[in-house]
Amino acid sequence: MQLTQNHIDYWHKNLRLTAILLVIWFIATFVVIWFAIPLAEIKMFGWPLSFYMAAQGSLIVYVAIIGFYALKMRGYDNEHGVHEGEVE
Amino acid sequence: MAVSQKSFTQQLKKYYTFYTGGFVTFVVLLAIAEKMGVPNKWLGYCFLIFTILLYAGIGIMSRTLEVAEYYVAGRRVPALFNGMATGADWMSAASFIGMAGTLYLTGFQGLSFIMGWTGGYVLVALLLAPYLRKFGQFTIPDFLGARYGGNIVRSMGVIAAILCSFTYVVAQIYGVGIITSRFTGLEFGIGVFVGLAGILVCSFLGGMKAVTWTQVAQYIILIVAYMIPVVWLSVKHTGIPIPQMVYGTVLERVTEREKVLANDPGEKAVRQIFADRAKAADDKIKGLPGSYQAEKDALSKKVEDLKTAAASKIEVDAAEKALKEFPATPDAAKAKWAAEKGAASGRTGPPQPHATPFPGKDEAARDTTRLNFIGVVFCMMFGTAALPHILMRYYTTPSVQEARVSVFWSLFFIFLLYFTAPALAVLAKFDVYTLVVGSKFAELPTWVNAWQAVDKTLLNITDINKDGIVQLAEIVIGGDLIVLATPEIAGLPYVISGLVAAGGLAAALSTADGLLLTIANALSHDLYYKMINPNASPAVRITVSKFLLLGVAIIAAYVTSLKPGNILFLVGAAFSMAASALFPALVLGIFWKRASKWGAIAGICAGLGVCLYYMVHTYPTFIQWFGTTPIQKWFGLDPISAGMFGVPVGIVTIFVVSLLTPAPDKEVQELVDHVRYPNLAGDIDTRGT
Q1: Based on the structure, what is the number of domains in chain A?
Q2: Does the CB of B9 have a partner CB in chain A at under 8 Å?
Q3: In Å, what is the CA distance from B178 to each residue of A10, B175, B561?
């Protein structure tokens, strides 16, 4: 089994996408928590912003990250010819 | 296997739509029965028996003797359905019944569990699920064994998987016992075994295949049961049936109300009474041993005085009872007074503001609270991405692409419940703060009296300052009450309460099933087949697995009946242990080809070791059990978040030891390439058979 340049490119794209999405995940989680006290001053439809993020906003970001990853990776699979084809 | 994947999915959609319709009809029929005067107790039995029979039916229909069907449901569970099954597998009694209560009691701080238990799926999706699916064997120790070579790492994987799953399953069976006993009036011990029967009918005959299809059914019940009362409550308070979108305004009103209650004279009077009681108890403790005899004499004298004064029988009886119940020894008296002091001093402050992050008296206290919030989020997230019963579910999809999509559906279905729980907590709090607080004791809503009669630890309202008005400081609420009583708070018929109980039961049963199967598979597949008897025939392997499942279930039920410790802590501990032991070795095994066998061995030992060391030396119950010497908490971090030390230690250890030992051989390198690409020309095949 010999990996070609095409395979290596695919893997690097995957790593880059993973890294970017993990940064977003980190911001939506730990940066938001770290600044929760100042963020609570901002109001959003009645919620203090930090409460809203911890109860809903960050959760929506998580769902979006995973959905985006699945779609984008499907694109990469096809582009680099490593997709599995139709499953019986 | 004649059916194509596409028409199989179509068929499943048809079945489960039909099933949901059937279930709704069943609930409507019971509602009619209630109108016609069928007693509540019978409605409770109906829900219990009907749902367990339903799960049993699915379990029997899914019986199998094929190894791949038994361990990974034949690898043909479509992404959407695997998502629902994972949702049910994931959401336990703690999520269904406990979560909203925890949020009610702790406000912002409780949101750490909401974030942690959802954000972990990002790690599952990006770092684990697709790669494990490509690897495609049966268990998590399978992957560790293949990647790091040899039986040492596999055995450590088995030990870690069993350790965290067993801790977790005990908490689940406990939940099953509580629900069955509460809604049918059976004793707790019997409730545990009835629940156990319910767990076993799902998994015994069909392994993963049966568990998958019952979990889908259980998800549908639990989400319907959770949503109906909250939507109703939302309509009652805001006129809009989407509680998640509108409770912001209710939260504002709760915050205003908190400010009023903090300065209300009646509230202050009650808090003062508790402060006095705490001080009195403290004085008595300080006055020991002299105070013991003095207290006892005072009680005897009171009985005598009342008798001579010809007081009413009630008063005399009460005094005699107090004397009779007086502790037999000064030591017992000390324990009793210490408990009194603790209970009273917890009720001397104004209400915690619900929406404020990290409340604390000074900067340092707020920083520690914030660190503990981060600790819980961190451990729940990394624990999610390491718990074998969850990761195992992604072996069951037909392809790598489906595995990725399936994590999306998993989190979506989990999200539906988790973004509702904070809304429920706020709506229930608003009800209590405005409708109960300030009302007259003679005119309390009926649900208050009903629940007080059921269990004083769930709800207890006593007129402490004798003014006939309910003050907030006079109310004691147990966390589980919020979900259990919501139907009544919202003024819904009893049939909805039964539905909520059925939902809680579904949540606890589905999680317990997934966990028991994980433990039994680790023993039957990894220990028996891979290490002891590699020549065993498929029929023998499945039989061994079934008997182990039965054995583990009975042991778990036995341990549960001993009622060990705090449930939420047990669950948290399972997450910290899984994160520390398994996460570093799994992720580095995929993303770092250089990670070596000895690196993994050292990493698992060091990570789990640090985590266990910290918990055993800082958690009071463990200190008592193991007789360890307590240590100062590191950075003030609570024992539940021990994984915050375990995970980094595990990662660093794997790095250092791997670089000091020889690189893995060519076969392992090829395996890593194999899992990284969904499809490779001239690929090896690692699928388990």
Answers
A1: 1
A2: no
A3: 51, 5, 11
